[in-house]
Amino acid sequence: MGMKIKSAAIIGLGAVGGFFAPAFAKVLGEENFCVIAQGERKERLEKGLTVNGEFCKFSIVTPKEAKPVDLVIMAVKESGFAQAVEEIRNLVGENTQILCVMNGVGHEEVLEKTFGKSHVMYSYMKITASKNGNTITYDPGCSFRFGEKKNTVLSERVRAVKDLMEECSLPYCIEEDMELGIWRKFMLNVGTNLPCALLGLPYGPCCKSEHAVKIQRALMREVVAIAQAKGIALDEQAAEAQLKMSKGFPAQSKPSTLQDLEHKRKTEIEMFAGEVVKMGESLGISTPFCWMIQEAIQTLEEKNAGVI
């Protein structure tokens, strides 16, 4: 009998973590599924939360109490990634698989250096979701993308996660080139998420304005230039396809960076535009649009924090 996922844990029960948690709890059972949290966050999550209209309570376990599981889903914010890497150590056993569904690029490389390649697969989410207090809402049309870096043939561990997704009735897709898929998502976040946040617009108006679309296209072109310098097959045709796709998002839905600014939370701007600027500097590629939008959103963060 091949590999089978019989237990799982999630670290980061926010808008994205809410996609997995209810189904995992039902299919694997409370004794085989937990959420990792500690301190005030643990106390808050133990009160339960509502996911797409369904009230849910999960087993909340501290990092010290955690025991090895077959599958770990990482869905924390970028600011919590380094800490989360340390907090999942007790969860990782001989055959544990780690899937990091965070935005951005490069997380898999960090996890591979920490836990070894045999424990890490590639993944990202196609999702429109929000979290307000203890209420999580996500678009049922979303999907979980996962696999090896390349998937011309499905490995045993990919098939095991696939079987779990089907048992849980969770929408998924195994892309042939997961690295390219992650970079496409990154390009979309930089190109569409950030202009929405800067302009204070949900997806619909931002994708309708020809001026906003020019900003999106300019940002995406900088990501394309970085990707190509790294040998990743991203091109302007892919950028145009992402622009076209974003026009199909629910018109009044708001990307994560805009939600963060509206709730006066720290954004992930360093992981988006900041990372493009950093990679551009190391590669000798100019990224003026990403530089500008990073500085602008950081100014809005200062405004929210009462610094200015």
UniProtKB/TrEMBL annotation:
Gene Ontology CC terms, in alphabetical order: cytoplasm
Keywords carried by this UniProt record: NADP, Oxidoreductase, Pantothenate biosynthesis
InterPro entries: 6-PGluconate_DH-like_C_sf, 6PGD_dom2, ApbA, KPA_reductase, KPR-Related, KPR_N, NAD(P)-bd_dom_sf
Source taxon at top rank: Bacteria
Pathway: Cofactor biosynthesis; (R)-pantothenate biosynthesis; (R)-pantoate from 3-methyl-2-oxobutanoate: step 2/2
Reactions accelerated catalytically: (R)-pantoate + NADP(+) = 2-dehydropantoate + NADPH + H(+)
Ketopantoate reductase N-terminal domain sequence ranges: 9-135
Gene Ontology BP terms: pantothenate biosynthetic process
Enzyme class: oxidoreductase
UniProt domain Ketopantoate reductase C-terminal: residue ranges: 177-300
UniProt KW Mitochondrion keyword: no
GO molecular function: 2-dehydropantoate 2-reductase activity
Entry EC number(s): 1.1.1.169
Similarity-based family: Belongs to the ketopantoate reductase family.
PANTHER family: 2-DEHYDROPANTOATE 2-REDUCTASE, PROBABLE 2-DEHYDROPANTOATE 2-REDUCTASE
Function of the protein: Catalyzes the NADPH-dependent reduction of ketopantoate into pantoic acid.
Protein name per Swiss-Prot or TrEMBL: 2-dehydropantoate 2-reductase
Species name: Blautia hydrogenotrophica (strain DSM 10507 / JCM 14656 / S5a33)
